[in-house]
Design brief:
The structure is a homodimer. By secondary structure, chain A is an alpha/beta fold. The first copy, chain A, is built from 17 helices and 15 strands. A 6-stranded parallel sheet of chain A has the order 1-12-11-10-13-14, with helices on both faces. In chain A, helix 6 links the parallel strand 5 and strand 6. Chain A is globular, with a radius of gyration of 25 Å. Strand 14 of chain A pairs parallel with strand 15 of chain B. Chains A, B: It catalyses: L-histidinol + 2 NAD(+) + H2O = L-histidine + 2 NADH + 3 H(+).
């Protein structure tokens, strides 16, 4: 694995390459996706069936075949082995407990002149979850998207997932049953996003669409943003690791690889203050690679998008990491909590040697849907508020309008909005 | 003003027309805006200067002329009359106090096995505010966009505003001085959004762009979403009013008009349970219209997009209003707070006869940047969290990984991610 040093003469250039890591080329597929969306808006279910025939290679026939039956979900759930069932339940419970702590509360505040101001928080009526299908169907994605919606109090949760050759991933169905998702549609790609954004005869229009997907799905989500809300536009997965001289190279190496095995486009970056840790980790990566089931993918990712940076101080290391703003950040140092105040930009922060990133993918509790490609500078992890929205509350008493009304009318006059001013002044005591 | 009744045979059709109120035709201008963005990305400041010459009709010359000096802002502030200054300060203080109540806190939570989970909340590094310019420059827009960013703790706040014929709105400058915004650029339209999203030699790349604007600005915001975060995509302004037999028609009428005077595309909808209130309000609207400074705009808005609906019960009225999901909702009934639990979708809710909507535009405290066109079903008012983001925190003890690790590894195995499983298992005690 490539090792670079912040003192290298070409470091700035190398670091720019790291920062310019895989961004989804949304522009390239925009016109294709726009056409797909238009087809769904115009032809609804019939367009869905055409797209399924073309991309997933099966013929839907009548509308109801788009829907997976609750019975199938129940069977799938009952068929999974006990250990897995126990693990799924443990994940479910822990994810639910964490997201319950995020729940915002409505509030009211009272002023002495009789003014009442506040904020009412409510769930959206309907959420649409997109879950990739086929071989890459991850039941954990279903848990991570459904549970925040459940905790938010969303009454109707709809799932779309592609079923290539009409084969459904049984584990995904089991997870849907566990989460009590009652409507799962066999629809994938940009078509699914368009169907949930605009509605068809079978698939209801939702208010919010969340969930991972390929470049077509990401582009469709961006294009329907405004018609519905979306969580974020995500790209390939990433890990950043801050390591000092106390970090164990064989932990660091497998953690870097756990990200690299996702995708050839995934990026795994470690910044360490210790030359020896850098060298040993690089060797360990090579060792582990030989025995990985997804060796080819991981190797390509490590070679093309991985790097170990040796920094001259932890301060410098953190500064660089804040610029990268990684999706996942492991802090593998002696006193990781002491560094927490200085970490500004990261999707999820994993502290200490017993906290490998995959713990956060499945079982810790926080969401694994995280901002990628430096967007942790402005996006948050998927959370209950993605499925909620707020309304401001304002109530003025007679006293309050008498006290504050004229100042309001003066501002309205200044902006030339005389009906605004008048609507206040008609209420003022003469 | 048109009065319709929910019992009318064509009511459903009429109501559909109301719901299909002015949506911004973003698609129509997308390709123009895409070209503008491409020009800014390619040519930076030079493209900005070309666009300013074309649209705002003045020649910038050297780069520094894009910036308004702090001195000019200070002068503008010192020149405004005392009453207005007092009103501006009152607005500033109240808006600040309200938004301080919204501030989310970071938190940590501890489990008995040594697990620590939490959420760290941080401000974005840099925010870009777009404020329309020229005659329609509203200092209140500046306050409403800058104050949440200030309260969130954003270190660098940048403002872009167009200055047609190089004439700057003095009140806007005064408001910028009051808010201590140090960088105000004379750049408007889609070019300004592109400049803040991608950065130019003079204008820094920001993390979040907020603020109102025309269809070109709205489209540009949608197109740069993902490169930066944005608040929402807003359309024409709207008011919905729920009124019972106790509501005063001359209040209702001027409140409807205060919305109508904004824009011919604005929509003003009242739903009342009382025939007489409907008839009298319609007459009062006609009376007020004759003396409005913006009569022509308001009349067109009321005639083409206004309606009074007579409902057979308050329950029905609320149900219809939730479907409309108005930007502003006035509840002009005897006991407005009793209806609050049933109101699901509205940007801001104004309760009781002393609370006209314009109070919320200027002085009450809550933000006046609100979701329009039914998007209150999923968007929130502009708030401090638009300028903040969260990072999840996860720290496992040796005990915790021993207790939960195997369940995690089982789930990873199930998904075929063996490096994920391995990164957990290497840490488990044998």
């Amino acid at each position: 694995m490539k090792i670079i040093n912040t003192k290298d003469t070409n470091f700035n250039e190398e670091f720019e390459n790291i920062q310019a890591r895989a961004k989804s080329d949304i522009k390239g597929v925009s016109s294709i996706v726009m056409n797909i969306i238009d087809e769904i808006v115009t032809d609804g279910n019939e367009a869905l069936k055409r797209h399924i025939s073309k991309f997933d290679k099966w013929e839907v026939g009548s509308d109801e075949n788009l829907l997976i039956s609750l019975d199938d979900m129940k069977k799938a759930y009952e068929n999974i082995d006990d250990n897995l069932k126990k693990s799924l339940h443990m994940a479910y419970d822990r994810i639910k407990a964490y997201h319950e702590k995020q729940l915002p509360k409505s509030w009211l505040d009272f002023e002495e002149n009789g003014t009442i101001l506040g904020q009412k928080v409510t769930a959206v009526d309907r959420a649409g979850l997109y879950i990739p299908g086929g071989k890459a169907a991850y039941p954990s994605s279903l848990l991570m998207n459904a549970i925040p919606a459940i905790v938010a109090g969303v009454k109707e949760i709809v799932v779309c997932t592609p079923t290539p050759n009409n084969e459904v991933n049984e584990l995904l169905l089991a997870a849907c049953y566990l989460c009590k998702v009652s409507k799962v549609y066999k629809v994938g790609g940009a078509s699914a996003i368009a169907a949930m954004a605009y509605g068809t005869k079978t698939i209801p229009k939702v208010d919010v669409i969340t969930g991972p997907g390929n470049i077509f799905v990401a582009t469709a989500k961006k294009l329907v943003f405004g018609e519905v809300n979306i969580d974020m536009i995500a790209g390939p997965s990433e890990i950043g690791i801050l390591a000092d001289e106390t970090a164990k190279p064989h932990y660091l190496a497998i953690d870097l690889l756990s990200q690299a095995e996702h995708d050839e486009m995934a990026s795994s970056i470690m910044i360490t203050t210790c030359d020896e840790v850098a060298t040993l980790t690089s060797k360990e990566v090579e060792e582990y690679l030989k025995n990985l089931s997804r060796e080819e993918i991981a190797r390509k990712s490590i070679e093309e998008r991985g790097a170990i940076i040796v920094a001259s101080s932890m301060e410098e290391a953190i500064k660089l990491m804040n610029e990268i703003a990684p999706e996942h950040l492991e802090v593998m140092t002696k006193n990781p909590f002491e560094l927490l105040p200085y970490i500004k930009h990261a999707g999820a922060i994993f502290l200490g040697e017993n906290t490998p990133e995959p713990i956060g993918d499945y079982i810790a509790g926080p969401n694994h849907t995280l901002p990628t490609g430096s967007t942790a500078k402005f996006y948050s992890p998927l959370n209950v508020e993605n499925f909620m929205k707020k309304s401001s509350i304002i109530s003025f008493s007679k006293n309050a309008i008498n006290e504050l009304g004229e100042a309001c009318a003066i501002l309205a006059d200044t902006e030339g909005l005389t009906a605004h001013a008048k609507s206040v002044r008609v209420r003022l005591e003469k």
